[in-house]
Amino acid sequence: MLAIVATELLPKASAVLSGWVIGAAFVMGGVLYLAIEAGAQRLAGAKRGGKRMWLIYAAVAIDLLSDGLMIGSGGAVATALALKLAAGQVLADVPEGYAAAASFRANDVPRGKRLLMMASFAIPVLLAATFAHLVLRDANDLWKFGALAVIGGLLSLAAIEDLLGEAHEHGADSKAAAMSFVGGFALFVFVSAGLE
User: Fold this and answer.
1) Which of 53, 101, 119, 152 is the most buried (most CB within 10 A)?
2) Residue 142: its pLDDT value, please?
3) Under DSSP, is residue 57 helix (H, G, I), strand (E, B) or coil?
């Protein structure tokens, strides 16, 4: 996610918008992430039994919603940008999908229902991408590129929260984890360069 923000979203926005607008939009994205996360935790807290499973499901669905907003916003700027963002998100979402599937299985969710729940993850992406594209396609540059900066703030905070949570959970630094971060960043840059 950080690679997408650093190599695609913010450079595109900074080519058009002032640093003040980008900074304000980035903060708005962070605030939006915190609001979404609070809603997901409230939703998960309302469920009894399998609470962690529903928290994972809600977190993945909300992440996919933000992915859809990002892809739709990118598509309003340029189709090639939307394709790069979608390719990068596929790479980023594989671990989340695996975690969700493992959680469903660990909670003895029947196979048919698991498949249906996994398929339902396409809904937030498609709805959000369509919404963002339709709203932004004829908008002026302030809104189009401002949306990229907002999504940049949202994704950055999501990535950092995830990294900090993992760090506290495991306690010790891992060279493999550090290299995985660097490798993932480089992989997105390579995918982005290949799609140019």
Assistant:
1) 152
2) 93
3) helix
Burial class (CB in 10 A: 0-12, 13-18, 19+), 147: buried
Q: First CA to last CA across the chain, in angstroms?
A: 19
Residue 39 has pLDDT above 90, yes or no: no
What is the residue range of 170's domain? 2-194
Taking the C-alpha atoms of residue 72 and residue 89, their distance in angstroms, rounded to an integer, is 13
Q: What pLDDT, on a 0 to 100 scale, did the predictor assign at position 37?
A: 75
Helix pair angle (79-106, 51-77), 10° resolution? 170
DSSP conformational letter for 120: T
CA 3, CA 186: separation in Å to the nearest integer?
Answer: 8
Number of domains the chain is built from: 1
The pair of three-digit structure tokens given for residue 189, joined into one six-digit string? 């840059």
| Stretch (H or E) spanning 81 | helix 79-106
Single pTM value for the model: 0.70
- CA 84 and chain centroid, separation: 14
- Which amino acid does the sequence have at 132? A
Q: Which amino acid is at 182?
A: V
What is d(CA 161, CA 40) in angstroms, rounded to the nearest whole number?
Answer: 14
